[in-house]
Amino acid sequence: MPNWNEIAALVEQYRQGPLHGRTITLVPYRAEHAAEVVRLRNAPRVRHYLHQSEELTLEQQLRWTASYSARANDLYWLVEHDGRFIGTNRLYHIDPTQAEKGSQIIDEAVSSAGPVALESDLMLLHLAFDTFRLERVLAVIRHDSGKVLSMNRRFGFREVGSRVVRSVEFRELVLESGRFDPSRLDALVSYWSKRGEQ
Questions:
Q1: Which of 50, 64, 112, 174 has the fewest Cβ atoms nearer than 10 Å?
Q2: Number of folded domains that form the chain
């Protein structure tokens, strides 16, 4: 189990450079990416599932960026695929025993062509359990986000409760490190990456 200094050092390390997967790259978020995040988050489907009632402005995103930069327990990435940003993902509220994953956005046109959402979350979970050595990862997912709930159950997440946010139900899920067996899902991502090379 890491201590707070180790967490801060790892967060700083992973904010410095990209993480390369088989079909995607996780690019650490910086202020220069704010306009991309605004573009991604303002898509109607994304606004629905993130329960974002109004369009995000560049000024709001830049204010959030300042607070993000000051936190030593938060990692936010843009998901890059074939040279363009197609989404975001995040591991945050990292403490010595657990973290929360969320803020995942994947462009629907790209996600239907391969398991980029799956690979993005697998990369976060490997980081949480293998590098940060956390005991558990939490996820809070809107009740009508069937595909995301299903994918998280395939990782081994189990539902432990629910909460209401601005009159909308969200499911609370947890994945303990001992239940995380990524071998089958890693194999699926590997298979898809080889198909793309052909």
A1: 112
A2: 1
Scanning the structure block, which residue is given the tokens 């994953």?
101
Which amino acid belongs to residue 48?
H
pLDDT single digits (tens) 14-48: 999 999 999 999 999 999 999 999 999 998 888 88
Please report, as a single letter, which amino acid is at residue 87. G
Q: Read off the tokens for 125.
A: 């979970």
Give the three-class secondary structure for 131. helix
Q: How far apart are CA 140 and CA 48, in angstroms?
A: 15
Rounded to whole angstroms, the Cα distance separating 110 from 194 reads: 17
Q: What is the pLDDT of residues 119-175, one digit of tens each?
A: 999 999 999 999 999 999 999 999 999 999 999 999 999 999 999 988 999 999 999
Residue entry with tokens 């298979």 = 191
Domain that residue 103 falls in: 4-197
Element (H, E) at 108: helix 108-111
Q: What is the DSSP letter of 180?
A: -
- Bridge partners, residue 139, by sequence: 101, 173
